Amino acid sequence: MSFNDVVVVGPLAVDMSQNSITFKDKSAYLGPLRTHLLGYLCKHVNQVVGRDDLSDAVWGRSVSDHTINQHISQLRKVITTLNNTDLTIATIPKKGYIARCEAVGQPNRVKPEPVQTQAKALLLSDTETCQKIQNLKSDGELKQLEMFSNAGLLHERLMSNEFQAVIIDTELANAEGLKLIKAIRTGQTLASSDVAILSLASEASKQLLGFNVLMDVQGLIVKPVDIEVLEKQIKTAVAMRFKLKPNAAYDLVPTMLNSAVSVNLQSACLSN
Q1: In angstroms, rounded to a whole number, what is the distance separating the alpha carbons of residues 272 and 268?
Q2: Which of the residue ranges 42-46, 61-65, 105-109, 144-148 would you say has the lowest mean pLDDT?
Q3: Are 14 and 39 in contact (CB under 8 A)?
Q4: Residue 170 and residue 199: Cα distance in Å, rounded?
Q5: Integer Cα distance of 192 and 30 in angstroms
Q6: Cα–Cα distance, 12 to 14 (Å, whole number)
Q7: pLDDT per residue as tens digits for the range 171-186
C-alpha cells in the first residue's frame, strides 16, 4: 500500500499522504501510524485481519495486544466524531479485527489530488506568551494556530484530532508542559500518540534538549517567538516521520528539569 494512495471505502476516504480521514464534508487528522492502521483495515474491508498481520504491516514488528487495542479504540472515537455510520471496526475475539462496510465489497484506490494547506497547530503556554504571539500574527500568517493558556481547554481540543502539531511550553509550573508531552506520547490523551510536538522554552538547555530527543519531540522554539521561524518549524515538524517507541521507554524519561521556570496558567487566550 503506497503512502500516496487514498483508500476509499463507501463514503469514507483514508488519505495516506495527508494522514487523514474524510467522511462527506468532514475530515479529521489521524497521524501516520493510525492512518496506516485504518488504511490497512480498509484495504481488507469486510475481512478479518489478525493481530500478527496488523503488527507486521503497521508497526513492522511484534507489538502487544494492548497497543493495538489502544489505537483501534482511538480510531473508533475519531470515526464516531465524523458522525459516520457506514464504517465500523469490530473486534473478533481470538482472531483480530474487521472493518465493516456493507456498501462495498472491496475498496478502491485512487491517487489523491495535491492539496496545499497550512498545518493546523495547537499551542499551550502562559497568558502573556499567548498574547504576544497573538499580537504578532498577521492575517496571512499562522491562521490555523490555536492558543491556550488553560490545560483543561487544550485537552478538550485534543479530542478533535483536527490538527497536525502541538506546541507545548516546557516552563509551565509543576512541569505541566513536560508531563503533557509524556502523556501524549504514551497515549494518555485523545491526541494521536505520534502527533508532531514542538517544545517552547526561553533557552535550549542540555536537559531540555535531552528530554526532546528521548520523547521524540520534533523541535524547540525559543522565546521570544519569531512568527516566521515558528511557521517554518511547524511545517518541518509535521513533515518529519518517526516510529513510536514502546510506552515503557517514554515512561522512564523524567519530567522535572533543573532549568525549568515556573509559569502559572491563567485563562485561555483567544485564537484568531
Answers
A1: 13
A2: 105-109
A3: yes
A4: 6
A5: 7
A6: 7
A7: 999 999 999 999 999 8
Residues of the chain with CATH 3.40.50.2300: 121-251
Alpha-carbon distances of 246 from 68, 177, 194, 223, rounded to whole Å: 12, 21, 12, 32
C-alpha cell at 231: 511557521
Is this prediction's pTM over 0.70?
no
pLDDT reported for residue 1: 46
Q: Are 181 and 137 in contact (CB under 8 A)?
A: no
Provide the 10 A C-beta neighbour count for residue 262.
Answer: 10
Q: What is the DSSP string of 86-98?
A: S-EEEEETTTEEE
- Among residues 116, 129, 93, 101, the alpha carbon closest in space to that of 201 is found at 129
Q: What is the DSSP string of 24-49?
A: TTEEEE--HHHHHHHHHHHHTTTSEE
Listed as own residue / partner, the contacts of 249-254 with beta carbons closer than 8 Å and 24 or more positions apart are 249/214, 250/182, 250/185, 250/186, 250/214, 250/215, 251/182, 251/186, 253/182, 253/211, 253/214, 253/215, 254/211
Of 28, 39, 31, 74, the closest CA to residue 238 belongs to: 31
Q: Rounded to whole angstroms, how far apart are CA atoms 272 and 263?
A: 24
48-50 and 88-92 beta bridge pairing: unpaired
Fold observed for domain 6-110: Arc Repressor Mutant, subunit A (1.10.10)
Considering Cα of 47, then 52, then 55, then 58, what sign does the dihedral take?
negative
The CATH classification number of 121-251 equals 3.40.50.2300
Question: Which spans in 140-194 are helix H?
Answer: 151-158, 176-185
